[in-house]
Design a protein that fits this description.
- With 482 residues, the chain is of the alpha+beta class.
- It has three domains: 1-54 and 67-86, no CATH class; 93-141, no CATH class; 146-338 and 383-415, Alpha Horseshoe (Serine Threonine Protein Phosphatase 5, Tetratricopeptide repeat).
- It is built from 14 helices and nine strands.
- A five-stranded antiparallel beta sheet has the order 8-7-6-5-9, with no helix packed on it.
- Strand 1 (16-19) and strand 2 form a beta hairpin.
- The radius of gyration is 33 Å and the shape is elongated.
- Residues 276-351 form a coiled coil.
- InterPro entries: FKBP4/5/8-like, TPR-like_helical_dom_sf.
Amino acid sequence: MQEHGGHVPEDKVQYLVKTPYGRGLVVRTRIDPHLDGTIKSRELELLDWKNLPSENDTNSASAARLVRSGPVRPATLFSCADFPSIDPEEQNDVVTPYGRGRVTAMRPETNQVVVRISSWRLAGRSTVTCHLNKNVVNVVRSKQIYEMSTIEKIEYAQELKQEANRLFSGKRYQDALQFYAKAVDAVRYVQHKADSTNEMRADLLVVMVTCSNNAATSCTKLHQWDEAEKFARNALVLMDALEDKHGKRIHGILLKDGFPDIKLFGEWRVKSCIVIARALAEKSSTEDAIASLKKAHSFIEKYTGEENIKNTSLQSSIKQLQSLEREIKKLHKACLERRKVERKMERKRAQAMFGAKNATPKEDEKKDGNFSNNPSKLPKLSAPGLEDGNPVTKHSAKTCSPSIRSVRSDVSEKSTQSLRGDLKRRVSFATKIDDRDDDKDAASDVLEWYQDSEVLIGLAIFAGMALTTFVGLNYFLFSPKR
């Protein structure tokens, strides 16, 4: 350790203790370099000490001085005393004789606490739970995200996801979106190490895909189409990457956890494609939206074959895909109607360009209604992925992460935006869609400019005049002199 006066880094494990001035957080511990292990002093931040003026003193001279001086440092106490730990409560992070963990329950009748150890674990997802006397545990500050290990970040994301599901069920879509986004950000840049197990990698994939899909659905509720497309594409990329490793260890673990191929590569990918198609349609990218719907339909055809239909254990997924297929059909029909209107407007503009005796484009827009402002009504999406709200781990996700109560305080309680009345309440998709027949019907109703007889006659006259002029010039310029 450095001598007194030099910079001393903050303690990695910061204890919460009782002081004569209220609760204190041990920020730094200085060791005497001349005496091995002897604590020279501790620097404590007094959490309950108020050095700001009260509301009644805002006009006082001291209040004015504090405002002019800028941000006020928290009250600090320097002492070499060994203060006792504060009393543990549920969800507190604690240090025990067996490692670091989190309090999951209190036993006041026996003066004991139940602690789930997080600093080490058994094989797979097995964890260790200890019943300890309250006097042998010391409360510490919860870890920040950058301080967490891989498994702690995954469990923290699972905890945020559960809270987001609750908010979504209560139609608080903006708040739910914030929690889903926080869950995705918590594990977005996870760097696996040598001690990262395949179970961790599988859990990471599940929480990333489900939270991305759920965040995309929340965005559709709020009409945030760009964000919805980004979240859905993120989930689709992850599932495509998993399919490339089909049959390997992580895929095998997911199968054991109850995630068959029909759910991984069927339900989840179809939901992503539908959200992408909906977002593209709302942004008037009709052709791309239709392509995304066809891609979703190909996944349904692949995983609703006769073999899967006969499998009784897959019936819930089969029904879900059939429901999603009906929704695809509705959205596909709306996109075809939109494309039909777009082509009609193109034909009208072409006719006006060549002087056809028809209405001008502006008159057509007034007659048909401005399409860009009044698009074809698109069916409303439900909440893809929310049925996967339960964590994959065998235990609850209340571990090794900042208390969810502190996270809730970051989210405002404001009401979310009201949804448009032209959208339905649930998603569903169909048994079969004949895309080719729909395309033919749509194309047959639209007459392109080059198929219009008046336009072709005008072009023929123009071409004849041009040819006559060319022949005449050629005769006078290149005929032999007499």
